[in-house]
Amino acid sequence: MSYDLPAKFEEFSEARRQGFLRVKQVKENGGKVAGIFCTFTPTEILDAAGFISVSLCGMSNETVPAAETQLPKNLCPLIKSSYGFALTDKCPYTYFSDLIVGETTCDGKKKMYEMLGKLKPTYILHLPQGHDSDPVTVWTAELRRFIAFLEEKFNLTITDEALRQAARQRNAQRQAHMKLMELQKQTPPPLGGMQMYATMEGTGFMFTHEDRVNKLNQLRESVEANADRSAFAGAKRILVTGCPIGGVLQKTVKAIEENGGVVVCFENCSGIKAAFQMVDTEAEDIVKAIAQRYLQIGCSVMTPNTERMKLLPKLVEEYKVDGIVEVDLQACTPYCVESFQIKQLCEQINIPYLAVETDYSTGDSGQLATRLEAFLEML
Amino acid sequence: MSNYVEMWKDLGMDLEAHDLLCQVLPTAVGDVFLTQENRPKAMDFWDLVISEVHGIRPAELIAAQKEGRKVFGTFCVYVPDEVIVAANGIVTGLCGGSQFWVPGGEAVLPKSTCPLIKASVGARLGKTCPFFRIADMYVGETTCDGKKKAYEILGEDVPMYIMDVPQMKREKDILKWKDEIADFAKMVEEFTGNEITAEKLAESIRIHNEKRKALQRVYNCRKSKCLPISGRDALLMTQISFFDDPVRCAQMCNRLADELEQRIQDGVSVVSEGTKRILVTGTPLAVPNWKLHNIIETSGGAVVCEEMCTGTRYFENLVDESGTTLDEQFMALSQRYMKTNCACFTPNTGRIDDIIRLCKEYQVDGVIDCSLKFCCLYDTEKFTVSRALKEAGIPVLSLETDYADTDAEQLRTRIGAFIEMLNG
Amino acid sequence: MNYFIGIDIGSTCAKTIVMDSDKKVLHRMLQPTGWSSLDTAEAIREKLEQLGVPTSESAIVATGYGRISVPYADKSVTEITCHGRGACFVHGSENLTVIDIGGQDTKLIAVESGIVKDFIMNDKCSAGTGRFLEVMANTLALRPDELCRLAAQGGNTSISSMCTVFAESEVISLIGRGEKKENIAFAVVDSIVKKVASQAGRLTLGDKVCLTGGLCEFDYLRESLSRQLGVAVETDPDGRYAGAIGAALCAYNIRK
User: Which chain C residues have a beta carbon less than 8 Å from that of B409?
Assistant: First the structure.
């Protein structure tokens, strides 16, 4: 079986382009692709089942109008963009997916998955909301159910050993990722946030464990050896928190770095939030160990979201942060509401805080730049 | 409502702000309710309650507290009242249906939060809702993102207990909800100091089933082609039932149903023949939110059913009374509450089945699917609801609104056009 | 009784149609709505009397957002029903989809066998309406029709904000950046067309799609809309009177 590449192929970044070619090849060799949307997706299980997991999070405004013919306008742009890609067949990752795995995280995604389920085979994991008396047991049971589903549906066996091996590999990748990000603790930081983000994003589209770890390690070594440390000397050190920001990098991170700041730490989905927790690969019950690991992710869909409240002050200290910028996507209720508590937290630990809400359009770039510039001047 | 000033002062309410609120209510009640012709006489009870909505019931609650009873404020139809009443506790609804409270909520919540949540938080923080001053304990739930996160903020100001509502309805989720109800019962026992026995819970289940049956009886009368009660009056009854004592609520609803059944026999209708029968579905309409019903019923339509939390979702499905142990009863409660179909569940196809069934039962001409602004759950479901209804040959109008009056004219045009469309 | 009158008081313009008992259009009147719908209604009444059309003896239906401000009308009908019926009359077809871009509202109306079957209307915000075009034209110191003509020569620019207020500041920054006027005009029309098309996505379009309302005379807008929707959008010189014509047609049901 052969597959065509999308028309816009040439416009993509190198890692993404490689990703396209590789996913095509994987499919042509009879491989299986799982589309995922969230850091709560237990990738170890998909790895052990021989799936390649690819993030389907939409980062472009391009498909939002198409999505809005079915979804409400007042919905987060990431959700609209993702659904739009599926609806218009513009994303080969969605197109190539044998299975899409979603979770009951936020209301918007939860309801979008129902509609996505009509377009693609979709499996939903029931994620505890943080107030369960025993979330680990509930989430472990949910993961076992998922394993059983994969085994039956795709006629395969997922052994504990395969899960352990997958967990070891994912841990190694997380460690490599952490080490790279930790370079930014240095003063001045060796990398700009834009570069750092491009790296993190690129590895998300690499399909083998070795490639991902090697890429992360190579990059770290090359930065350690060659970084121009003067580039961000004296720049204000910013921590970015909030929603996934792949779709709004230019008007947030770039704007910060063009106005006297440098993003030294990303505490969001592709950053530290979901990278520092390791699976206990020696645990007696490996599925439970995996479940425990994911429940430590401090996402605002949890109530209360104590993990985030614990993590932020720690990062502020470790990364010698001068100010926190929270970037929330429009209509993301969990993060937008929680930002009130983050503001209170920042007052307590005495760190300047700015929250901005934006979407994937460019209409507010000027306004955002002004606010970010003023914030940096204030520091 | 002047006789209650001392009580409000004792409750620590902001009297000046509360006066402003009290000034607008009588006009609204007059415009929406008292202008109607040929109302059922039994509505006098609800007219009285609404005229002193911050007086009569709060005074009763305070008197009960003096006898050592605990008052629980709740926000959602998934919280099992039976458990609270079995421990001699009292359940009350809370304020959240007026634009008056929205700015107060916006002080701590994003503007893009649903008005019901903003108003609830504003009513508490602004000290202008007696129920929010009286309750000893507040029971929230992990239903929608907005409430889930707003409870965290509210929890800084009041004692809150959060029930973990499942997001799906598989067998294991029903079992999980049963465990959650059992945990809740433990908290209620400790908080009230009263043990919940199987006998007491059985009695409480019976009381609440009677209340549901009474509400259903009134709604059954709305199924008649000879429509004996307006949608506005029926809505007021349902809204107040969240605040009332369940036994009295059942009595009053039965008294109303007696009159309505008689009216049907006598052929007394509140609308002229050919008035289009509308079912409204969507997000709840909390007191005093009567905007939608008022516009529909002054544009040539009559609301005959609400597939809403302030409607059929509140009282349809009884709890199985055959359980003799707490374990069986908790399971029966779980099963009953998990039959309620809210958009916070995934999937929620049961709601579509409900709407289509109710359209037949209530002989409906058209459906208005209306959600509060920024409720992405119901807003997203509109697509599937409207597709399913069109397939079933039922005309549907999807709307979105908030508590402000600024869109009243636009709504009037759309609803007017919809009813013209039904008239053909 | 000889006259059947439809009065459509829109947010910018008031349109009046007088028909005889054979549904022949005798008079067309157009005037700005101004500040007060009541005053406008009164001015229309005076003009009708001058034309020898006695309002007291005619069947009159009022529509449009000022429909409740016509004290001498026998009935008020919403502009959605009227535009549906009026468009059928104007285009001589009982099955069509009507796109009405009005001053304040954009409506999409599906008509089957002469009866409105479904409709969509924009929410409170003015994105994709005539008002949007007017505001942007003002910012560019053009008349709306000039803007549409100019847009035909432009391209390669876009306005991303749907909100009129934000879009206006986007236009201002485009001007500040020295972008060519025709390109900005293109972006304005493009934005309206995309917005309307996104609304149209929620409705099943019929075989025949027609544009009514004040903007139906703007050729470029029509062409652009046709391209975006992938279907030939038709217009008629009487398109802007569709609401008033529909109202006049509704007047035939009035018994006096």
Answer: 65
CB A210 within 8 A of CB A295: no
Residues A238/A322, Cβ–Cβ less than 8 Å:
yes
Q: Do C160 and A361 touch (CB under 8 A)?
A: yes
Neighbours of chain B (3+ CB pairs under 8 A): A, C
Q: What is the pLDDT of residues C71-119, one digit of tens each?
A: 999 999 999 999 999 999 999 999 999 999 887 788 899 999 998 988 9
Task: Tell me: do A220 and A359 sit in the same domain.
Answer: yes
Asked if residues A235 and A372 have their Cβ atoms less than 8 Å apart, the reply is: no
> Beta-carbon neighbour count of residue B100 at 10 Å?
22
Residues A326 and A227 in one domain: yes
pLDDT given at position C125: 67
Contacts of C among chains (3+ CB pairs under 8 A):
A, B
List the one residue out of A1, A301, A281, C77 whose CA is nearest residue B299: C77
- Judge if the upstream peptide bond of residue A65 is cis by omega within 30 degrees of 0: no
Residue C216's SS3 state is helix
Measured at the alpha carbon of residue C123, what is the angle toward residues C107 and A89, in degrees to the nearest 5?
80
Kindly determine whether residue A107 and residue B377, on different chains, have CB atoms separated by under 8 Å: yes
Joined tokens for residue C85: 């019926």
Same domain, A322 and A364: yes
Q: What are phi and psi of A15, to 5 degrees?
A: -60, -40
CA distance C176 to chain A (A): 13
User: Do A143 and A171 lie in a common domain?
Assistant: no
Q: Which residues of chain B have a CB within 8 Å of the CB of C124?
A: 406-407, 410
Residue where a domain stops, chosen among A122, A156, A190: A156
Measured CA distances, C212 to B161, B170, C56, C151, C241 (Å): 56, 51, 30, 20, 8
User: Could you tell me if A193 and A256 are in contact, meaning their C-beta atoms sit under 8 angstroms apart?
Assistant: yes
| Closest CB from B108, B113, B346 relative to A110 | B346
- Give me the residue from B410, B417, B424 closest to C124, CB to CB: B410
Considering the domain architecture, whether residues A129 and A177 belong to the same structural domain is answered as: no
Facing residues of C59 across strands? C4
Tell me whether residues B406 and C124 touch, CB distance under 8 A: yes
Give the percent of chain C with pLDDT over 70: 97
Quote the number of domains for chain A.
2
C-beta atoms of B406 and C115 within 8 A: no
A125/A178 same-domain check: no
To 10 degrees, what angle do helices B376-391 and A107-116 make? 30
- Indicate the domain borders of chain C: 4-80+242-253
- Of the candidates C166, C167, C198, which has its C-beta nearest A68's C-beta? C198
Percentage of chain B lying above the pLDDT 90 cut: 96
pLDDT tens column, A44-91: 999 999 999 988 988 888 889 889 989 998 999 999 999 999 988 778
Taking contacts as CB-CB distances below 8 angstroms, the residues of chain A near B162 are 131, 303
In the structure, what pLDDT confidence band is assigned to residue C137 with cuts at 50, 70 and 90?
Answer: very high
Q: pLDDT tens across C194-234, in order?
A: 888 888 888 888 889 999 988 888 999 999 999 999 899 99
Is the domain defined by C4-80+242-253 classed in CATH 3.40.50.2000?
no
Across the interface, whether the CB atoms of C201 and A363 are under 8 A apart is answered no
Identify the CATH number of the domain in which residue A143 sits.
3.40.50.11890
pLDDT of residue C15: 95
CATH of the domain at A280: 3.40.50.11900
Residue ranges per structural domain of chain B: 2-423
Nearest to B183 among A106, A133, A334 (CB): A133
Alpha-carbon gap: C127 to the closest alpha carbon of chain A (Å): 13
Name the residue range of residue A29's domain. 7-156
Asked if the Cβ–Cβ distance from C201 to A68 is below 8 Å, we say yes
pTM of the entire structure? 0.91
Q: What percent of chain B has pLDDT over 70?
A: 100
Q: Which chains touch A (3 or more CB pairs under 8 A)?
A: B, C
